[in-house]
Amino acid sequence: MTGANRGIGLEIARGLAARGLAVVVASRALAAAEQAAAELAAPDRVLEPCQLDVTSAAERAALADRLRTRHGGLDVLVHNAGVSFHGFDARVAEDTLATNFFGALELTLLLLPLVRPAGRIVMVSSGLAERSGWAPELAARFSDPALDLPTLRALLERFVEDVRLRRHREAGWPTSAYGVSKAGMNALAAVLARELAADDRHILVNAACPGWVRTRMGGAGAPRSAEEGARTPLWLALLPEGGPSGGFFRDEAPADW
Ligand SMILES: NC(=O)c1ccc[n+]([C@@H]2O[C@H](COP(=O)([O-])OP(=O)(O)OC[C@H]3O[C@@H](n4cnc5c(N)ncnc54)[C@H](OP(=O)(O)O)[C@@H]3O)[C@@H](O)[C@H]2O)c1
Questions:
Q1: Fewer Cβ atoms within 10 A, N terminus or C terminus of the chain?
Q2: Which atom of ligand 1 is nearest to the CA of 127?
Q3: Whole-prediction pTM value?
Q4: In angstroms, what is the span from residue 208 Cα to ligand 1's centroid?
Q5: How far is ligand 1, taken at its centre, from the CA of residue 200, in Å?
Q6: What is the pLDDT of residues 25-64, one digit of tens each?
Q7: Domain-by-domain residue ranges, the chain?
């Protein structure tokens, strides 16, 4: 569970712990992870604080080691860590993609071998993944049923490069690094679901829009509480056998993007 120290992530962690799962409460700052684990503590709950900046290869590897040696694997992986910056330039594009897309991608690839049968992978995405401001051919590539991981990775790397070279508009990208990162997450869920379809562990991978939520990112004027925002990600984390895979959901129902 990444970005579990506050906002929607804290509520997803609370929901998982309340349903009896042992939760690794991962946060960029260990002190924040410890504080969150203490807040969620109850006699029958297992909560393990852990430091994880999703952009750090060393910290991702340390988490994989911990899950392998202490827990023998994992059942649920929730990618909640996310950033949204003001403005739009090469730095914003690079930093946004590093956390929201590449952090989730690299962590998934590292942890996938450790995911136990009936495992669930959830991407906390956003309605801003919708691609209406994109060139149609580029938008179509993100939902191409033949899209594979190397091509998806190259597409998102090209976005960062196109912004750096100031040619993103002619290349058909929108001026929202956040939107591109979340479209990447949705495509990642779809590609992984296809690649795992023949895997006998029956792992389900989906993306969720939490809605507009009152958190540090969403602001005080948002209509939903963090607990409400956590509902669809939690539902996807606990899907029964035979549930959907590769989809994007809002309010526990399929959503367009
Ligand atoms: N709020 C909304 O209206 C809304 C709408 C749609 C989607 N979302 C998505 O929901 C998710 C949670 O957002 P939120 O609203 O709860 O925002 P938030 O309160 O700002 O929380 C963001 C979380 O992500 C963590 N994080 C940021 N960069 C990280 C990194 N490199 N490595 C690890 N953790 C990192 C933060 O940790 P620190 O405390 O260390 O900064 C924090 O725990 C995000 O993916 C966001 O894009 C939110």
A1: C
A2: 6
A3: 0.98
A4: 14
A5: 32
A6: 999 999 999 999 999 999 999 999 999 999 999 999 999 9
A7: 7-85+100-130+181-254
Per-residue 3-state assignment (H helix, E strand, C coil) for the chain: CCCCCCHHHHHHHHHHHHCCCCEEEEECCHHHHHHHHHHHCCCCCCEEEEECCCCCHHHHHHHHHHHHHHHCCEEEEEECCCCCCCCCCHHHHHHHHHHHHHHHHHHHHHHHHHEEEEEEEEEECCHHHCCCCCCHHHHHHHCCCCCCHHHHHHHHHHHHHHHHCCCHHHHCCCCCHHHHHHHHHHHHHHHHHHHHCCCCCCCEEEEEECCCECCCCCCCCCCECHHHHCHHHHHHHCCCCCCCCCCEEECCEECCC
Exactly one of 173, 178, 248, 249 is catalytic; name it.
Answer: 178
* Active-site annotation holds for 58: no
Q: Specify the residue with its C-alpha closest to ligand 1, atom 46.
A: 82
Fold exhibited by the domain 7-85+100-130+181-254: Rossmann fold (3.40.50)
Q: How far is the CA of 115 from the centre of ligand 1 (A)?
A: 23
